[in-house]
Amino acid sequence: MYSVLCPTHRDGDRWPAVGGGHGRLVQHCAGCRALSDTIVGDRTNLWIRVLPDLTNIERDDVNAVHEAAHAVVGLRAGMVGLQEVSVRPANRGDGKTGHVLWHTWGPDRMSVVASTWAGQDAGLRWLRDHPRYDTAANRLDIHTGANHDATLADTFAPPGTVHYAAGRDRASAMVDEHWDAIRRLADELLVQERMTGAEVMDLVG
Q: Model pTM?
């Protein structure tokens, strides 16, 4: 997907390369916009819509697996002190999607990176499981939505370090390994919208 970033805005192994994500770049950088259009076409307002090819119900499902993956992968990687997990339905119209709160970070940098990147990997897994929606536009939006996660991961293990690379690899593998638990938590979040750490532990162990 780095082919849709102009040379000026490519940066190591991070995605996106700047704050605000790819959506901001294509609105202000002619080079990035031209490269993006070659992949997804010139679609009006594509870059300021969230997952443009999905309904609100499907967006909510993607957001739920994103937040659930942060929690489940974090727990399986040995993180402790899960405080709460929440999602925010798309039809609220406030632009908020959800969050995961931990009392503490750890036990090591690799685990934090794995948990942080798991949200993006879960979103991409959702698209693979729904081939109809596995489009370039939606994949780009999944990546763009992980901009905050990428910034957070960088604070624990900068790109290029062994902890960062191991955490990224671990995230992808653990999302697939624990997909049933992620899916189970996501389904419950769609009903409750907010769950405490204790409730999550009771559900996924």
A: 0.78
